[in-house]
Amino acid sequence: MVGKKKSRNASTQQQPSNRAGKNGAPYQESAGTDPAELHPDRLSSDLKSNLDRLKRDMGGSGDIVIREILARNFGRKVAFVYVDGLVDPTSVSEFAIETVLNEIKQFASEAELVEAWELERDAEEGRKEGEARYEAEDELEEDSHGGYRGITSEEDRKFLQQFKEKALAAGEIYQISDWSKLYLHLLSGDTLLFIDRIGSAVIASTKGGERRSVTEPESQTVIRGPREGFTESLRTNTALLRRKIKSPNLWLEEMQLGRVTQTDVGIMYIHGIVDEKNVDEVRKRLSVIDIDGVLESGYIEELLENTNKTIFPTIYHSERPDVIAASLLEGRIAILVDGTPFVLLLPSTFNMFFQAAEDYYNRFDVGSLIRFLRYFSFLIGLLLPSFYVAIIGFHQEMIPTSWLLKLAVQREGVPFPAFVEAFIMETVFEILREAGVRMPRSVGNTISIVGGLVLGQAAVEAGIVSPVVVIVVSLTAIASFVSPAYNIGIAARMLRFVMLIAASMFGIYGIACMLLILVLHLCSLKSLNVPYLAPYAPMIYPDMKDSMLRMPQDYMKKRPKLISRNNPVRFREGAMGNQQADRDENEPHQTQDPSEV
To answer: Nearest-5° angle of CA 465, CA 471, CA 477?
Structure first.
């Protein structure tokens, strides 16, 4: 509630109020007490005080633009505040400042304006002594954003309402009196409007600034399919997903994470398809994150995982809108972070890291063949150097005699055992690969390719390694690039060295033991309480239709069993057949003369 406004000639002494406070004790409030003094986190009714505090809190930053306007017919002074570079200049000038100036119909000379302002200020100082401008804390009215309006009188409330309705043409308008929320809007690209003698600010949505345009993603390229990828703008990314899924059931929940950065994070899912327990679990895990800053989705990826004691990625990420849209249709949850084009998907399974969007754009036989090659390439990249070391060191009887003699001749001048050879070449290739990634793009690929050829040839001629090791390491490197998900390839690269050590100590038996431990470890992993190896472990036969091989679309009638429990059906052949029959029945039948045929 807002207190009643007293007469201007009221006594300068205000009697203490006998109204009880929150705890039942009498509440004492002196005349002219500003709620900003009682609550430092709230705006003051004095325009100059608010602008001084804003300049002080922002450290006098040069990109903070303050535009003060004296409106004589309004009888008040207003000020626009925005951050240069975060706003759309057209929106600020045309829909905020220009519309306010157009409302000021009567202009006076500069001297008259200054004189009118001084007279108004003198009259205001006289009124401050005789009227109670604010009520107690419990009677201040909360606005829609949880702040307090801090309006002095019914006249000010009506004025502010008319001002928002007539003087501002922005699409979204808020009213806030809390400093923390005000700074969040200011640094998000909105424009603040301060009005003298009103203890709240009007927020006009003018977000803009320089943004990267929608381009083709570089990490997940396809031959056939959409060429658009996510950007660093959260709102652009949500718009790309809504273009794919035009359904009112596509829900978006937003929150801010990071005490300092206040990064916008969105949770996107399809209501009616997603498992509500998974959504509640994601909300719970995000709500307990207390960190200074979130600059990329990787900051919260580790905090969302069930466990970080694994080298395998348990959360899938992608920068392709079609991949995320398809996952949402399966019942998964997308987590979008402002400032990064990579969107997280929960829950994720091991099978997802070998699937690509292009598998569903080609025929099922082509997609199945390519997907099988990815699994085979993953095994080659993981086990080929280890098998070479194990066979050369422990199981020479497995090699044909003629080939064994050639290998013995090639290794005659090599001073190192097979394990040291493979370990040296693998380490050198990892260094070249990392150098190619970090160097400028124009020379990075050249360095990695030429460097590998030159160093490999030089190592063979110098007698440090044998030619077979160079071939094995090259095949391993090529196979590690086949996986569409880069992070699953990193896991294979790390495990490759572990397999090498096991093969050098125990041969093929060591490789078999490590594979057994690896499978047991994968079976123990979960992603958002969904088994990581599903549909292999546990074995779910209906979901096997879209695992290592891809069946035709009319065979995959149901969504993954452990992902979407509420609405499992996604392909309704009968309904489509009935619709086609209805169309055929409604179309006019045309007969043709056999002679024309």
So the answer is: 110
